[in-house]
């Protein structure tokens, strides 16, 4: 995708369409990955219950695996929330504008990270 000379804040729906396509594909990929890792359309905690039912596993091993499962679930949920928030910003005509300072997020950043809600400076300050 070529960098546009249009201001992102004035993004016409046709200019937002490629980003929406990227976000929809990213959401589908995350949901598919989640389903494969979980073995279906249920929560990671439910899927991991089967993993933790083996009597030969030590308590420490079970606790470590459970903590990892919960951390992965939290990360997956956060990614999905970020993608959905970006799709919501597109629908509300607020996509491409930093949520902190209000400047336009460069098209190159949105292409690389379509779910980005902040410009690089604000993202660095947040981290």
Give a description of the structure.
The protein is mainly α. It has a domain at 11-95. 63% of the residues lie in helices and 0% in strands. The protein is built from five helices and no strands. It has helices at 13-38, 44-51, 59-91, 107-112, 120-126. The chain is elongated, with a radius of gyration of 19 Å. The two termini are 28 Å apart.
- How does the major sheet shape up? none
Kindly state the number of beta strands. 0
Flag low-confidence runs: 1-9
Helix content: 55-70%
The secondary-structure element order is: HHHHH
Strand content: under 5%
C-alpha Rg (nearest Å): 19 Å
Structural class: mainly alpha
**What is the overall number of helices?**
5
Distance between the termini: 28 Å
Shape: elongated
Indicate the mean pLDDT: 81
Keywords, please?
disordered N terminus; mainly alpha; 0% strand; single chain; 5 helices; 127 residues
Helix/strand layout:
Elements: H1 13-38, H2 44-51, H3 59-91, H4 107-112, H5 120-126
Helix pairs in contact: 1-3, 2-3
Concise description?
By secondary structure, this protein is mainly alpha-helical.
